[in-house]
Structure formats: C-alpha cells, structure tokens
UniProtKB/TrEMBL annotation:
One cellular component (GO) term of this entry: mitochondrion
Gene3D superfamilies (UniProt xref): 3.30.420.40
Pfam families attached to this UniProt entry: TsaD
Compartments (UniProt record): Mitochondrion
A GO term for molecular function: metal ion binding
Descriptive protein name: Glycoprotease 1
Domain Gcp-like: 99-402
Species in which this protein is naturally found: Trapa natans (Water chestnut)
CDD domains in UniProt: ASKHA_NBD_OSGEPL1_QRI7_euk
Length: 470
C-alpha cells in the first residue's frame, strides 16, 4: 500500500477499476447449482474470498461510507473471526498486533456423544441456535461493538456446507449492517497461520502438518497464500480413525475420540496388538487410515468387546483389553504420521532449503503423544517443532481472525455486502477446497473420485488474481 493510513474506499472507483479484474476467480462456482423452486427467484453471490479490494490513499478517492475503520497502523486493526465449519461454533476478536481480546467456543460434545460423530443437519441447527450469542459474547468480552471492527473474517471452506452457511450468513449480516469489509478464510490455512500469532518470529517458508477429524495435510508454506501440498489423505483422516476407535471401545465421546483414546492408551501395552502400518509400500507422503480402522474393528470383535458397555462399567480384564487396543492403535496411527512427515521434510528441504520449523496444528495436534513423537522427528531433521496451545489447535475463532488480519494487510478482502441481502441468497461456499497445488511426487492415483476437486486451490486462485492485476 502507498500509505499506512486507511481511508474510505470510493464505490465508484471500485466498480470501474477493480471489479472486472476481481471477477475471474469468483466465476468458478458450484458445478451443480441448487435447483430453483418453481416461481422462486434465487440470488447467487460471490463468497467473501481472496482478491484485492483495497483501501487507497485519499488522493485517489471521493468521500463515501468507509468499509474499513480508519487506523494509524495495522497493529490497531480489530477483526472479528467466525468459525462454523464443522461441530464447534466459535468467535473471537483479535487485534492486528496479535493480541487476543476475546475467544468464545460453543461445543457440540453432547451431539457427538449421541450420534457417535458429526451429524451435519443436527450440527447446522446447533450452530444456528448459538451463533448470535457466541458472536455477542466475543464482542462483549473484547469490550467493543460491531462499529469498532475493522473487518469481519469468516471460514468459507473446507467444511460442511450446512454449517459453513451459518457462519457466512452471520458475518455478512454484521458486515452489511455496519459497512465492514469481509475476509473469506480457508479453514486449513487458518490452522497453519495461527502458529504465526503464537510464535511471532515464525517466518515463511515453513513446513506444516495439519491433522484433524476431516483432514490430513502435509504442506510447504512458501508465503502467505502460496502453498505446496506434499501429501494428504486418500480416504480417512487420523481424527476420524481416533473417533471411530473410541466409539467402538465404548469410550466417553463427549471428550471426542482423541483425548479419550490417549487417556485409555496410557493403561495399555502399545505392542500387544499387531496392527500393520498403513501404506508401507507407497513411497510418498499420502495418508490412509481406512485399513487401520478395519484392523481395529476386527480386533475388537475377536475379543468380544461390547461397546454398549461403557468403559466405566467394564470389568478389569475387559478394560485391560480395551486399553491394549487403544495403545496399539495409537502407536501405529502416529507411526504412520512420523514416516510421512520424515519424507515430506526431505521433499520440502529440496524445494526450500532454508526451512527451520515444522508447524503441527489441527485438533489432533492437541494430543501429547502425537507431539512427543513428532518432536523426535524434527530433532532428527534439525528443525524446531511449533505447536499452538490446545485451545488454538481445535477449531476456534482466533485462527480465523488472525488469518483474516494477515490477508487484510495484503489487501485481500471483499467490500461490505448489501445491508438488505435477500433471504434466498445462495452462497458460493467451498466444502471441498484444496489449500495448495500438489507436488508432483505427492500425486496419488489411489485418491478416491469422491475427493475430486470442486474448487481450484487457494494458491491457484491467488496466483490467478495476481496475474490479472499485473
């Protein structure tokens, strides 16, 4: 930017000079648009995403309502982050200097326990019930009002469409009523970038392992918005494997599968059950946990463990058997992570020899056993391990707000939406949205067709936008 001072954006200047150049990346909407009901008019809007709609210096502008709060420098930015991609409703307010002013999370633990996992329609309804309260609590704890915000950041993908819509609708409602710009955030990028809030000296490039209930990603972060995907899951993610194993063992799912398995595994022998490490024959960095899940299920059935009997009521012998399975599963599941990480670090060092850090984030990164094993890996590779605190590893609004701040500084945000958007708007959400472009060595022909891309990657969209503006 020409100046560190932010000024009102002329709507006339934006329409004539920028809109035509911004439209290309956003022309990539759903391949199968929703069917229109008879007699119903449906309005499609771009999702709040990436390209540059920037606040310029006063000499370029005429006066109009300001889409961004005037601040003397970026440290004074105030950004509200909203996260509803899966089963937690979260909001936070973060200052441009990284100060966390508030953080609020409403968990759906009871629903997880009831359904043994995430039920999309039930999750959507739970988000809708609490989203207003969660956002208001975040603002109240930060001691600010909506008018004080510089921008609103919101997760737009990947995730469950029904859940994403709740957060996006709330974010656009606030942004429209209070004339604030909107920053659309990639969920997995947010998990990676929150480490830069925690460790201010963390500079690009760095390696990142993102592990959660729905994702396994090994990524080389070359710069903000510039990512190389070294490996991903070809079927189930590690968090899904933890959850299913916990359910089959009759554990308390209100803790979610990861913490429940980790706790029980401390009582067991990790070498008592001989599970095979997945994909030993594949010399790439991709992950597979479907086969390990099958091994666990067969082991449980062979020992006649009844999941209907909760672990708290199990006999001593039964509890010991469950603990051995939990410990053996965890050892092999994490060994798979270790092997893939070691190879990915080697690949990343070939591309960017200056790498010093491995960032591990996502819900499963809260697991202390996982952290300890991966710390051994980075020591062997002469790197440093960076893990956000557990409260910032699971889904949260802080990571969304911080990622919004990082992109806002680069001028990547959308102008305020209309204050009176119709109820029948169809948001261009991105439930399956790759973070980076695949590394040639990391391509997997075993990838399921159901994982086929619906949207271009975040990296390719930013690159296309930059070329359009050149």
């Amino acid at each position: 930017m020409a100046s560190s001072q932010l000024f009102p954006l002329s709507s006339t200047f934006y329409r004539l000079s920028l809109l035509s150049r911004l439209s290309l990346p956003f022309a990539l909407t759903r391949l199968n648009p929703p069917r229109q009901k008879s007699g119903q008019h449906m309005t499609r809007v771009r999702s709040p995403l990436l390209p540059s709609s920037i606040c310029l210096s006063a000499s370029n502008l005429s006066t109009s309502p300001s889409p961004c709060r005037a601040v003397s420098n970026y440290d004074d930015l105030l950004v509200l982050g909203i996260e509803t991609s899966c089963d937690d409703t979260a909001a936070a307010v973060v200052r441009g200097n990284g100060e966390i002013l508030s953080q609020v999370v409403s968990s759906q633990a009871d629903l997880l326990a009831l359904y043994g996992g995430v039920a999309p329609k039930m999750a959507e309804e739970a988000h809708a019930k609490v989203i207003d309260r969660v956002v208001q609590d975040a603002l109240d704890k930060a001691k600010i009002g909506e008018a004080d915000l510089s921008a609103v950041a919101v997760t737009i993908g990947p995730g469950l469409s029904l859940c994403l819509r709740v957060g996006v609708q709330k974010a656009r409602n606030i942004a429209g009523r209070f004339v604030k710009p909107v920053v659309g955030v990639h969920h997995m990028e947010a998990h990676a970038l929150v480490a830069r809030l925690v460790k201010q000296e963390l500079e690009f490039p760095f390696m990142t392992l993102l592990i959660s209930g729905g994702h396994n990603l090994l990524v080389l972060a070359r710069d903000l918005g510039q990512y190389v995907q070294l490996g991903t899951t070809i079927d189930d993610a590690i968090g899904e494997a933890y959850d299913k194993t916990a359910k089959w063992l009759g554990l308390d799912m209100r803790k979610s599968g990861g913490p429940a398995i980790e706790e029980l595994a401390r009582e067991g022998d990790p070498h008592s059950v001989k599970f095979s490490t997945p994909m030993k024959q594949h010399k790439d960095c991709n992950f597979s946990y479907a086969g390990l899940k099958t091994q666990v299920r067969l082991a449980i059935e062979s020992r006649k463990i009844n999941a209907e009997i909760p672990i708290s009521l199990a006999s001593v012998e039964d509890r010991c058997s469950r603990a051995n399975i939990a410990a053996s599963f965890q050892r092999v599941a994490v060994l798979h992570l270790e092997e893939r990480c070691e190879r990915a670090i080697d690949w990343a060092m070939d591309i960017e020899p200056s790498i010093k850090y491995l960032v591990v984030s996502g819900g499963v990164a809260s697991n202390q056993y996982v952290r300890a094993r991966l710390n051994d890996v980075v020591r062997r590779k002469d790197l440093q391990l960076v893990c956000p605190p557990p409260s910032l590893c699971t889904d949260n609004g802080v990571m969304v707000a911080w990622t919004g701040i990082e992109h806002f500084r680069m001028g990547r945000f959308d102008p305020p939406p209309p204050a009176d958007e119709p109820d029948d708007i169809v948001y261009d959400l991105r439930p399956r949205w790759p973070l980076g472009e695949e590394y040639d060595k990391g391509r997997s022909e075993a990838r399921s067709l159901r994982k086929a891309r619906i949207h271009p990657s975040l990296t390719s969209m930013i690159q296309a936008s930059l070329k359009e503006q050149a």
